[in-house]
Amino acid sequence: MYNWQGKKLLVLGATKFQSEIVKQAQKYGAYVYVIDYYENSPAKKIADESFLINAVDVDSAVKLIKEKNINGVLTGFADSLLPAYKEICEKAKLPCYITNNEQLKFSTEKQVFKNYLNEFGIPYVADLKETDKKEFPLIVKPVDNSGARGICICNNEEELQQGILTALKFSKSKKYLLEKYLNYKEATVFYLFADGKPYFTLMGDRHIANVKDGFIKLPTGYTFPSPYSKKFYEETHPKFVKLFEKLQIKNGMMFIQCFIDENGNCIPYESGFRLTGSLEYILLENVSGYNPLAMMINYALTGKMCAGNEISKINPFIEQKSYNISCLIKPGTIEKISGIDELKKQEGIVDIFSSYDENDTISDDMWGKLAQIAIRIFIVPNSENHYILLQKKIEKLINITSTQNHNMLINKKIEEKNG
User: For the chain, what is the largest distance between any 2 Cα atoms, rounded to a whole number of angstroms?
Assistant: First the structure.
């Protein structure tokens, strides 16, 4: 479908996640450059060329683009690189799916996000003030960070004061939000934008587990499609369409994380206008035949999201079930990761993504953050029984041991099966 022969792509950042961009671009013939400030970053090992340039060094990136006649720029998976991405594209006169600062604010500043939800009549989690009567547990979070960084659950006044200090530490603007902690089910909604039109592509139940007291629950997996998809589409999607119109979003992709209350109502609490670490494009390619990551690369290189009939393949209500299982780990230094190669041989396992390599260290300050997700396993089973069998295979085969010969896996099964 895609033909990027002779095209040159610059990827900002060189983490394991950015390696996904590199591999996808190379698959269809693009020549890929990568920049970041680490010598041996994962994506640099597979890129065609790499440079020791900070991904937020706008002038150096633009200079490289001109020297190498680069056709497009892309980053993803982290909000922190989006402002630089936008500025680099603008200065180099290359396609950029983020076309105004309000789009950035909506997806990276939690208070701005809530203000827009309020304007368009979409339910949201109300803010509390420190002076409000406190009914614990409460959740405190930085207004401008992602990846669960700086978020704490507080059960008393002492924990609240410590949580505020933590949130401020992770906030660039030194501001925090205080909310009532909602122990609801969760779901994630995914959107694609092409030529000014928003497309609701998928909604998945987000299964979560408690990894340590005082921290938010982390995802142990996703089930697609969610049984709440039609209710969201009928009641909430039309409001988001109007919101997106006001933001003047033309192209790109977005995810929206939501609580699901006892009546099945969707309460959004966070969004991202970028590629997401759930890597849902892997499942979409397998069950629906189109790949949002490839579409993002195509936009970077050509200024068009689509190279063919991708839009006609979008069906958020597809009957085929698919799953993303996440293996969470405790802090430590990885001695050995085993079982991945054997698991890949199993029918129904369509891909496996490992966030870490052997000898990588997961520090104590990663508790309660998405950085604790070590492995993501993508499954398209032929039946419910087949899925249960594959779950057992995963539990049996996947092992991660530390240099202290400890089991690093947090042995949490999917805590709930929404719906």
Answer: 62
178 membership: H or E segment, kind and range: strand 176-180
When divided into structural domains, the chain yields a total of 3
What is the pTM assigned to this prediction? Answer: 0.94
Strand 49-52 to 31-36 pairing: parallel
How confident is the model over 290-297, as a mean pLDDT?
Answer: 98
Alpha-carbon span 164 to 162, nearest angstrom? 5
Domain end, chosen from 163, 180, 197, is at: 180
Domain ranges, residue 27: 8-96
H or E, element range at 164: helix 157-169
Strands 127-128 and 138-142: unpaired
- How many CA atoms are closer than 13 Å to the CA of 201, on its beta-carbon side? 27
Name the residue among 395, 211, 407, 417 with its Cα closest to residue 321. Answer: 417
Say if residues 19 and 46 touch (Cβ distance below 8 Å).
yes
CA 380 to CA 322: how far, in whole Å? 5
- Phi and psi (nearest 5°) for 394? -60, -50
Residue 17 pLDDT: 97
Q: How far, in Å, CA of 370 to CA of 30, rounded?
A: 30
Residue that is last in its domain, among 50, 74, 96 = 96
Specify the residue for token string 């200079």.
Answer: 63
Q: Please indicate, yes or no, if residue 410 is contained in any of the structural domains.
A: no
DSSP 39: T
> Position 265: which residue type?
N
Give the pLDDT of residue 416: 40
**CA atoms of 298 and 71, how far apart (whole Å):** 11
